[in-house]
Amino acid sequence: MNYLCNYLDEIILIGNMDIMCSYSCRKRGIYICKFFSLRSDGAGKPYYFDSVIRKTIISGELNYETDSHTSIADYFGFKGKDEDMLNAYEYNPITKEFVIDRMLNKDDSAIMKEFCLNLDFRTIVPELVVKPIINQKNIIHTGSINDSEIALLTKWASVRASVRASVRASVGDLVKYSVRAYVRDSIWASVRDLVGDSVWDSIWASVRDLVGDSVWDSIWASVRDLVGDSVWDSIWASVRDSIWAYVSSFFNLSKWRYIEHKECENPFQSCIDLWMLGLVPSFDGKIWRLHNMSQDGKIIYKREAYI
Predict the structure, then answer these.
(1) Contact criterion met (CB below 8 Å) for 12 and 180
(2) Alpha-carbon gap, residue 245 to 239, rounded angstroms
């Protein structure tokens, strides 16, 4: 079953019960442990799940959650009330945000923060690319589109089309996908299968919080007087697909689901390249546009779809 929820409320259109449960809990105020979670003994000794343990959990061999503080404590022998001997922390390697979740023993937060800052996250999630989030508003584009940028747009348009065809062929009537969800389903499913829900949630939320609303607001301001309400859903979907494509750049996967591509290449790279040039594509079903984000989403190129 597909669920349609408000993107700005942190809920996305996707046919997956697990992620919807996670988002639903957040909206009701129920706390969800986030990536990267760890415990300590109050004297600077960390307890956490490395990549080997995480893979075992994701495969179902261990009945734990990859970033549950309780799961971490239980796995390392701190069961029941003994869990209260351990402090609980969270750290986001993309934003460098360090959070004290629970201080149940002596305060060793400074030691644990230093540990996280120096931790090689390839030992935690080998597929994760740790890098700063780029806000396109800080990328100055000349405002003049060249042939290479047009080629990137053409490639991105073809990828969106091929993803739709691929999912129809491979999934058929088993799952009823919304047309607007194919790019997101491909990225979400590929990442989830390898690294789990908590890692994806953390990276998605980090990107959304920094650039999501500003991208959307700029695109909306630039096209609202040009298109009618009937095509707005298409534009909305295409902009969200661009954000999803950029989020995919934080993961290094050999194979992305639902789409044919060369091994170890990101099939959404054309849109990522446009993002790094300060450009966001939008599509209303007939017209492709490129928006210059350093100029508040100004339309600097448009063409009719021929793919």
Answers:
(1) no
(2) 10
Quote the CA–CA distance of 78 and 94 in Å, as a whole number.
29
Task: Identify whether the C-beta of residue 219 lies closer than 8 Å to the C-beta of residue 297.
Answer: yes
128 occurs within a structural domain: no
Q: How does DSSP classify residue 266?
A: -
State the residue range of the domain holding 140: 136-304
- Same structural domain, 76 and 161: no
Q: For residue 109, which of 131, 117, 69 has the smallest C-alpha distance?
A: 117
Q: How far, in Å, CA of 292 to CA of 300, rounded?
A: 7
Q: Strands across the sheet with 87-92, in order? A: 46-47, 37-40, 87-92, 97-102
Contact status, residue 235 vs residue 282, Cβ threshold 8 Å:
yes
| CA dihedral sign, ordered 210, 222, 9, 231 | negative
What H or E segment, with its residue span, contains residue 281?
strand 279-283
List, for residues 138-183, the tens digit of each pLDDT value: 888 988 999 999 999 999 998 876 554 443 443 333 333 333 455 5
Burial class of residue 246 (count of CB atoms within 10 Å of its CB; 0-12, 13-18, 19+): buried
**Identity of the amino acid at 282:** S
Residue 175 Cα distances to 142, 247, 290, angstroms: 44, 24, 32
Are 269 and 246 spatial neighbours (Cβ–Cβ below 8 Å)? no
Q: Indicate yes or no: pTM above 0.90.
A: no
Three-state SS at 91? strand
Shared-domain flag, residues 86 and 140: no
